[in-house]
Amino acid sequence: MSARDRASVFLALLSLSCSVEMRRGCLFLLVVITVLQLVSTGKPFVMRNIHGIVGGGVNMRCELERPRNIYGLYFQKTPADGNEDNDIFINGFHPKNIIVPPEYINRTNVNKTDFSMELFNLSLADEGVYSCIVLSDTDNYIDTKFNLTVTANFSVPNITVQGCNSVPSAHNCVIECSSSGGYPLSNVTWDVVGDKTSSLLMDKGDPPVFKQDADSRLWTVSHNVTLDCSQPLNITCSVGGVMSPIVSVCPPPPKDFTIPFACVILLLVPIAVIVIVVIRCRRTQPSAERSTDAELANLKSGWMNTEKHTLSENLN
Fold it and tell me: Which tens digit of pLDDT belongs to each residue from 182-195?
């Protein structure tokens, strides 16, 4: 079936589905599509690779060396099956009104000055090949095609830790790295900060788990490994080039202060005994001095009484 025949069939089918008010616009759009298909058949083109991020935007600018005698511009997308005969109209401009599909009305903006189109709020469904077709009085323009790839950045990976206690024992520390919202699919990469022997400290653990959302087609990735907690480690993981914060695992065991404490006690006990003895000696020394003085006083008193008694006898 030729392009003209396909256009006739499309015209008949779409005319049935259009309301009376929209029929004129539908007819005009079909005529434009038919003309563009006939004009673009067999023409050379220039391919441009462009990249966008989910939620962001891209700009598609037609490559025109001498943009003269241009009265219209047409952007279309090739279906996923690659059949250019079923190209999807996106947006453009023309002296007459153009009907923009509802899914692109608020997501596209055509610049008539530099012959470009911006596509906003990208999703993975926007990936594909787009064409910029020039409507001109002459046929000297080369069509421009854009190969759009769309990716999504993974979230900052999160590391969860289980069983990484301070008791050194083989394979008692399980850590998991998880990240979501990314595209294309990416694996988990582990790293031990400042340690070149990280591969010797980890078991492979379970295989990575990959889950893809059916609607957004974005991936969630998780992976766990087992560590030998024989020494403290600083761990990071990365998914799709996004790295997690550093997490410290396997803390050193607490120090045993029993022996040093016992030594201190043994050292302090004799010192305490000596101090107590000295204090007691100092407390008892004044009473001994007082008793000695009393004895001297008694002796002196007894001596004086004896002298008085002897003197009295001599006088008699």
Answer: 999 999 999 888 76
